[in-house]
Description:
Blueprint: E1 2-7, H1 11-23, E2 26-32, H2 36-46, E3 50-52, E4 63-66, H3 73-83, E5 91-94, E6 113-119, H4 126-132, E7 137-142, H5 144-156, E8 160-163, H6 169-196, H7 201-222, H8 230-233, H9 236-249, H10 251-270, H11 276-279
Parallel strand pairs: 1-2, 1-4, 2-3, 4-5, 5-6, 7-8
Antiparallel strand pairs: 6-7
Amino acid sequence: MKTLNVVGCGKVGQTLARVFQAGGVCTVQDLKGIDLSEAERASAFIQAGRPVEALCDMRPADLWLVTVPDTMITSVAADIAAAYTGSSRVVAFHCSGFLPASTMEPLRALGWSLASVHPVLTFADPTAAIAQFRGTPCGVEGDEAALEVLLPLFTTVGARCFPVETPLKSLYHAAAVFSSNFTVVMQAIAREAWTAAGVPDELITLIQASLLKATVENIAEFGPKAITGPAARGDMQVVRSQGADVFRWHPDAGVVYQELSRLARRLSVEQSTLPPERSN
C-alpha cells in the first residue's frame, strides 16, 4: 500500500488524509503542520500519522499532499525539495482550485510528478466534509504520470474526477467561488437586511433555511428557469425603488443589488447571464 505524507494539516489536509486512511487506499505516514501541536491534532483526527516538527523529519513516501495556503505552495515545495532525500518515483499534489500543478515546480528537480486535485466541496468542518465526500466532483490537472496514480485512489474513496485544462483553472475556480463563497456573502446581507427591517432573529433563520432549500431544489430541477423576483418579472419600477432603498441602507449592497438585478433580468429573458455577443 502506498504511503502518504501531508504538509499542511488544516481542514482540507485532515479531511483527505482521514478519507484515504479510512478508505484503505494508502497509509498516512508523516504529518507536518504550522507547528507540532497542529500536526498532533491532525493525527488524532485522522487516527493515523506521525506528527513531526520539521520537513527534514519526514520519511520518504510515495505520495505527498501539500495543503497549505495558495501563496505558500511554491515556497513549501522548494523547502521540501531542499530537505528531501529518497526515491524519485514520487507523486506530489495540492488541492488549489486556482493554481496549476506546476506551482510545485521545485519538486521536478527531484524527478517527482505533479498534480492538482480540487474537491468541489466546502471544508468548513472536516467531520462534515468526510460525511459528504463520497460522490464529490474533483477537478484534476497535471502530469499524466501523477494522475495515473491519483485517479484510482480518489475514485476508490468515492470521488468523481474530471479534467480541468490548465489555462482555464482560474475561471473554473471562480465558478466555485460564485456558487459557494458568494452565496454565503449574499445570505449574510439578507440576514442583515431582515434584522434592519425588524424581523425577529429566530424567524430570520427559519425564513433563510426555507428559501435556500426551495431555491436549491428549483435550481436542480429547472436550472436558469428557476429565476424569480421583480427583475425577472420585469417590474423595473420596483427594482429602481428598492435598489435606492438598499443603497441608502448599505451602499455596497445597493451596488450589488443593482448589478444582480440587471443580470437577473437578462437571465429571465435570454436564459443566460452572458452578454448577447458571448452567449451565441
